[in-house]
Backbone:
């Protein structure tokens, strides 16, 4: 009887541990967001946001998760100071009035054993709209530097900037903007 109770308790504990959601903190040293947009029909121009934070929760047993990302709009870099100042101004990202961009989701879609897309809401310039991020290069491993479990992925989507109120220089600068994020998140 004691063996049965002990075995049952161990089995229940192991099952609960496997089924528990795990929280991860976004690693700011290995995460950045970016965009690219067609400029005058001539080339794709791009920029990076270098300050990204937030959390990711993954429940591998339930094949579900949550994502909460905050991007510091003032961290935008295009590597040209005058263009950076213009893009941070009122015609584009208006960083004084809207200091952050956010993406929040409580729906992570798995294909097999890995997350494949994240359905959520992007807030840009105070406007919140549904967005689906497609995930590629999704991996989980023990980080050899920290020894901690870490998820990594690259996520992409395409938005129409005018739907968020960013209408400057349309259509010379394309309405369609490709967004991406390279993300690593470390177990808490």
Residues:
């Amino acid at each position: 009887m004691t063996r049965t109770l002990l075995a049952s308790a161990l089995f229940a504990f192991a099952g609960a541990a496997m089924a528990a959601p795990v929280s991860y903190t976004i690693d700011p040293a290995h995460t950045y967001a970016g965009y690219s947009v067609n400029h005058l029909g001539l080339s794709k121009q791009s920029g990076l946001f270098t300050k990204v934070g937030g959390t990711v929760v993954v429940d591998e047993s339930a094949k579900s998760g949550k994502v909460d990302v905050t991007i510091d709009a003032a961290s935008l870099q295009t590597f040209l100071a005058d263009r950076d100042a213009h893009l941070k101004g009122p015609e584009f990202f208006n960083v004084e009035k809207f200091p952050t961009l956010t993406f929040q989701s409580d729906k992570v879609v798995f294909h097999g054993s890995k997350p494949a897309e994240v359905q959520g809401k992007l807030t840009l310039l105070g406007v919140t709209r549904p967005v689906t991020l497609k995930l590629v290069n999704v991996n989980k491993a023990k980080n050899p530097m920290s020894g901690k479990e870490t998820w990594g992925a690259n996520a992409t989507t395409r938005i129409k900037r005018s739907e968020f109120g960013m209408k400057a220089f349309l259509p010379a600068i394309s309405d369609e903007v490709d967004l991406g994020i390279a993300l690593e998140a470390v177990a808490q």
Summary: The first strand starts at residue 22 and ends at 26. Confidence is low (pLDDT under 50) at residues 4-17. The two ends are 38 Å apart (CA to CA). The helical segments are 2-19, 81-88.
